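Lecture 7 notes: from sequence to structure.

We start with a single chain of 156 residues. Read the sequence below before looking at the structure.
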Amino acid sequence: MRVELSVPEFVREPRMWVKHQAVLAMALRPGSFELGLRRSEMIRLTYDAGEMSLVPRYFEKWFRPICTFGICPSAFRDAALTAAADGTSGEVELRRADNLVDARLRALVEAVNAERIAGFPSGRLFLDSVEQALAVALVNGLCSAAPFCGRPTEAD
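Now the structure, written as tokens:
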């Protein structure tokens, strides 16, 4: 899992934004930005501290920060998502979710942020474990294509 502090700065013109991995981001302080699939369709979104958003990989959108705010994005490796889907072959695709409310996910992201602030003293094993816990929670709750995600049922 890749964890970083991102503080988008104000820009006049929107820019195209694409992440190549699924990203779960939590706002660290209030802020707002404009977002849309097309420049002409951008809408303003406002986040309070602690609100989360899930962006699937390769999701292209126009993005323009309105004011500076910090976010703690966590990018997931494909291997973690595939393992969370019990090794299902193919790519695991997560659905986009704005204003994601889930106490378990929030607690895990807050733990990752606390680890980031402390300089990652627990090392790689801690991040790998939290990444796997986050991946399982996301795959079980936000997968978009049944054959490529989730746990097999008795009918499978």
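Confidence is low (pLDDT under 50) at residues 145-156. Keep this in mind for problem set 3.
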